[in-house]
Amino acid sequence: MVKIQVPATTANVGVGFDCLGIALNLYTYFTFEETDEFSISGCEERFQNEDNLVYTSFLKALAYLKKEVKGVSIIIDSNVPVSRGLGSSATCVVGGVLGAYELTNTAIDKEAILNICTEIEGHPDNVAPAIYGGLMASYQSEKSVISVPYLVDERFHFLALIPDFETKTEEARKVLPKELPFATAVRNSAKLSVVLKGFEMYESNILSEVMSDEVHEPYRKPLIHEYDEVRAICEEIESVCFYISGSGSTLMNVMRDTEQVEAIQKRLDKLEYGWKCVMLDVDRAGASLC
Ligand SMILES: Nc1ncnc2c1ncn2[C@@H]1O[C@H](COP(=O)(O)OP(=O)(O)O)[C@@H](O)[C@H]1O
Ligand SMILES: N[C@@H](CCOP(=O)(O)O)C(=O)O
Questions:
Q1: What is the annotated localization of this protein (predicted)?
Q2: Which of 61, 174, 231, 235 has its CA 20 to 30 A from that of 277?
């Protein structure tokens, strides 16, 4: 039997669409045991079948490794809410692939795991930090994925504002434009390069100034009820910068001062939709055995 923990991730980090992601200290736990036949439990009933993403990822990794198991029992224990932009699908993919490696006693090869996971997930920005921890920047070519780490000063905290409604990544990708004006692309890449240094150097002013994405956020904002109200509350109380976590629906407020969380929650409680504040920090280890 093996038990694996995989961190949640906040992808895009505003201006890094499909390339930036940060691992957070919120986890899903996966237990794998070789048995006579397949069984899965611990997740919602709609996912308790052979189409379960953990199981399909597990099978893909076994096929890649050219290994077999008789059957597998998978138990999921997740703290990562589904379809809220905190990388629940990436936890399942990374958990399933790592489960296949561990259950077959295969030596861990993170580069190969990153490539398998990216192929399943379709983009590397969640799976890279879920595997390696920390802030990762990734480039996906036709052949493979290159992921490199960047630092995040530990005085930054990530306040996840999680609403009571879902945004499915598949749907949130459909609203994106097919093309962008040249000047927009140039501005966004300039912001991206500056943002990376801002996280490393604890440069709050720089982050406040450049964290305004023009590639995906303007198109996705209308999918998130009360975006403007939530943002205004955070900016009034305490906010270094604010962005849509992954494809939403969670909104992320980067903070220095953790004492203001209660004040923000109190104001959010007066809104029409349910919003829950969860204070998170960077996970620096990535997926690991428990
Ligand atoms: N605990 C879980 N058990 C089974 N499948 C899950 C679980 N969590 C997430 N998933 C899978 O991931 C999908 C959600 O992925 P997605 O819409 O990309 O949202 P997220 O932003 O949470 O990654 C679900 O529809 C399901 O297929
Ligand atoms: N780059 C992806 C990230 C999706 O992250 P998730 O946490 O919402 O699955 C996108 O923006 O579509």
A1: Cytoplasm
A2: 174
Binding site, annotated residues for ATP: 81-91
263: left (phi over 0), alpha (psi -120 to 50) or beta: alpha
Ligand 2 within 6 A of CB of 220: no
Residue 38 has a CB neighbour count (10 Å cut-off) of 17
Evaluate whether 75 touches 30 at the Cβ level (below 8 Å): yes
| Sign of the alpha-carbon dihedral angle for 170, 176, 179, 182 | negative
Q: How far is the CA of 68 from the centre of ligand 2 (A)?
A: 31
Which tens digits make up the pLDDT trace of 126-175? 999 999 999 999 999 988 999 999 999 999 999 999 999 999 999 999 99
Total-model pTM: 0.97
What confidence tens digit (pLDDT) does each residue in 168-209 have?
999 999 999 999 999 999 999 999 999 999 999 999 999 999
Domains and CATH numbers, the chain: 2-150+285-289 (3.30.230.10), 157-280 (3.30.70.890)
